Amino acid sequence: MTFRALLVDKAGDGTISASVQDLPDDRLPDGDMTVAVEYSTLNYKDGLCITGKGGLVRTFPHVPGVDFAGTVEASADPRYRPGDKVVLTGWRVGEIWWGGYATRAKVKGDWLVPLPDALTTREAMAIGTAGLTSMLAVMALEKAGVTPPKGEILVTGAAGGVGSVAVAILARMGFRVAAVTGRPEAADYLRELGAETIIDRAELAEASAKPLESERWAGAVDSVGGDMLMRILKQVKYDGVVASIGLAASATVPSFSVIPFILRGVSLLGIDSVMRPRNERLDAWSRIAADLPHDKLDDMIAEYGLSDLPALGPAILEGKVRGRTVIDVRK
Ligand code: NDP
Description:
By secondary structure, the protein is an alpha/beta fold. The chain is built from ten helices and 15 strands. The chain has two domains: about 1-115 and about 295-330, Alpha-Beta Complex (Quinone Oxidoreductase, Chain A, domain 1); about 130-270, Rossmann fold, CATH 3.40.50.720. It is globular and about 65 Å long. It starts with a strand and ends with a strand. Bound molecules: NADPH dihydro-nicotinamide-adenine-dinucleotide phosphate (NDP).
């Protein structure tokens, strides 16, 4: 038996290459579940793995793809039977374990969750790691007491994968959403997803010398990091909450100050999707199935095949990919 996969390899001179290849099944890692992958997706981290950047992939050759959805082919885990539809996100699959850019994957049963009844495998990957992480952030804001009457929520990197899903979920839940984007042409798309206000990235990109700015946001979902994160913290209302997801601009905050924390009681919550316990993933997926409007998903999706990935990897790192990119691995 063979399977088809995007194989990333590193030559002796350090050059990274990515190509679609047919491989024998015995090249798959040792998992207790074999899954016929139907869809995977493209996340920022996949861009790093496809291009060999960021030191995420340590062993070559490697099959990237940090998430996938498909059908169980064989199971040594009593919770699953052949024919079950399943979803995988996180657990460093696609980084240190062969991932979803393949027609077949072998993984551990603990890493899978059953596909919610309300979703197809394609919809699950339109949501993917980015959407799961957005939902985890929204649930963290809720748990911290942020509710629609408290005011507007700011979403940064809004036209990206995490941002797009966050805008759609928050709007559906009745929040007024302000979307920060560096792409003026994405304004109509973001309004369609439910954003009420569009903010030019340039307005928040530079550090501010002021210790605090006017109170504006009840909360924020930030996938950008850097000085923009600090600008947001300075603009969040008394007792407001910011969920930090990503580092699309920078992992460091040169202008960092504790003033918003100690004068306004602002909270900064860290969101990690990779190692979240299974029960939280199940909760988040059932909330996604209930709270993410399916019609909005269609607006976010562009669909490609395995052979498009060598070009898509660099594109997402350059911020050129809008919304969610679904990969039909059978194409
Ligand atoms: P995308 O590339 O799809 O989206 C990132 C968006 O950030 C871009 O679309 C762009 O939005 C904005 N952006 C890019 N560069 C800059 C910049 N220099 N300054 C300001 N804004 C910028 O990536 P994802 O949505 O998949 O991921 C977003 C971030 O979240 C990444 O850093 C990723 O690593 C992280 N992440 C973390 C997870 C976790 O578990 N914590 C899980 C998933 C992702 P626009 O065009 O609208 O300006």
